[in-house]
Amino acid sequence: MSSPPRADRPAGLRERKKAKTRQAIQEHALRLFTEQGYDATTVEQIAEAAEVSPSTFFRYFPTKEDVVMRDDYDPMIAAAYLRQPASLGPLAAMRAAMGEVFTEVFEADERTIRRRIELIWSIPALRARQVEGQLATMAALASMLAERTGRSADDLRVRAAAGAVIGAWIAAMERWVVSGRDVSLPALMDEVLAFLEEGMPL
């Protein structure tokens, strides 16, 4: 008697197709933003380039801003953080998790990452959304640090540590964008997180 089909196969295929569509929409959007400007590019133009309907665009990205802002890094970082050995301190575990995630995504998506960061820093509306995103990421990092240290996620020191990590990321991304392609973003991320881990000696 043959084995029944695995129940996860259709769902897995659907998720891969959704991820492929989401990636295509984002890639075409970033290309159009680069070619003709963010403000001059419409959702209808993005949808046409990606060969989807405007309603499909909005199923994946609620606004035009979201097509630049959205990524899946936070859950990837959380999963990598949970895999780190208990022998590592909270910042050392964060540094290891970041190294794992950003090395992987940078190798696959360097061009997309650079386009997104450059757009975010050049468009006021996107910079404002970035602040919202950073606050959400800080909350997620605080939860991870709290779990590892046995403290509350609302503990001021936990929140400050999460905020310091966010600040270090911003410094690394700024240096990467202005330095051209002579340095890798994962290397800069590791450098600034090592600086935090060492107690920020100046």
Helices and strands in order:
Layout (H helix, E strand, L loop, with lengths): L7 H29 L6 H8 L3 H7 L5 H4 L3 H11 L6 H33 L1 H26 L6 H24 L5 H13 L5
Helix pairs in contact: 1-2, 1-6, 5-6, 5-7, 6-7, 6-9, 7-8, 8-9
Proportion of residues in β-strands: under 5%
User: Whole-Å distance between the termini?
Assistant: 70 Å
Helices and strands, in N-to-C order? HHHHHHHHH
Q: How does the major sheet shape up?
A: none
Estimate percent helicity.
over 70%
CATH class of the largest domain: Mainly Alpha
Task: Explain what this protein looks like in three dimensions.
The chain has helices spanning 8-36, 43-50, 54-60, 66-69, 73-83, 90-122, 124-149, 156-179, 185-197. The chain is globular. The chain has 202 residues and is mainly alpha-helical. It folds into two domains: 8-63, Homeodomain-like (Arc Repressor Mutant, subunit A), CATH 1.10.10.60; 71-197, Tetracycline Repressor, domain 2, CATH 1.10.357. Residues 1-21 are annotated as: Disordered. One of its GO terms (molecular function) is transcription cis-regulatory region binding.
